[in-house]
Every structure is written in C-alpha cells, then in structure tokens.
Amino acid sequence: MYDKLAERKIIFCSVSHPTIPETIVANGEVAYIRLHGTPDMFYSDYSHEYLSNLKASIIKKRKIKKAYIYFNNTAGTAGILNALQLVQIVKE
User: Fold this and answer.
1) Which domains does the chain have, with CATH numbers?
2) d(CA 18, CA 41)
3) Cα(65)–Cα(12) distance, rounded to whole angstroms?
4) DSSP state at residue 38
5) Which of 59, 90, 52, 85 is nearest to 71 (CA)?
6) What band does 79 get if pLDDT is binned at 50, 70 and 90?
7) 37: which DSSP letter?
8) Residues 6+ positions from 78 with CB-CB distance below 8 Å
9) In what order do the strands lie in the sheet with 30-35?
10) Tens digits of per-residue pLDDT, 30-46?
C-alpha cells in the first residue's frame, strides 16, 4: 500500500493515537505526522523525551527530507506547548 501511494505522490500520514501502533512511515521524501495525544486523545501532552525520540526517528529515515508534524492534542494547551517544545528540540 505504501508503495502504491508513493507511486501516486500521496504522502502516508503517520499518527500517534491511543489505540494504534506508532510507526513513522516514510513512503517519500516528505513525512506527515499527526499527534493526537496519548493516552487521553486530544488532551494528553507529549514528554520532552517522546518529542526528542520522534526527531531521532525521523532523522534515521534517511529518505525523509522534510517532515510536517501536526499537533491535534489541542482540547487544552498541550498542543501549543508541545509545538513550542518541538521547535526548541529541532534547534538542538
């Protein structure tokens, strides 16, 4: 399926969700990742360690040249705070 999407220039959206495995799929040079919050979808924040590991996972996938990470844990302030954290982690 990933190859068929890539053939059609469709980016697979990897996701962090409480009920499914978290796998970063690189089916092209661009990655699209949505973070919904876990264990409480839309509410839970992500730790500094989780976001650092996410950065490392993306870098390990040499195929990825650009990654878009969207926070959907925005029922409170977690998404905003995580986005600001990730900006700092990317700069490290």
Assistant:
1) 2-91 (3.20.20.410)
2) 7
3) 15
4) S
5) 85
6) very high
7) -
8) 37, 43, 44, 45, 46, 71
9) 13-16, 30-35, 66-71
10) 999 999 999 999 999 99
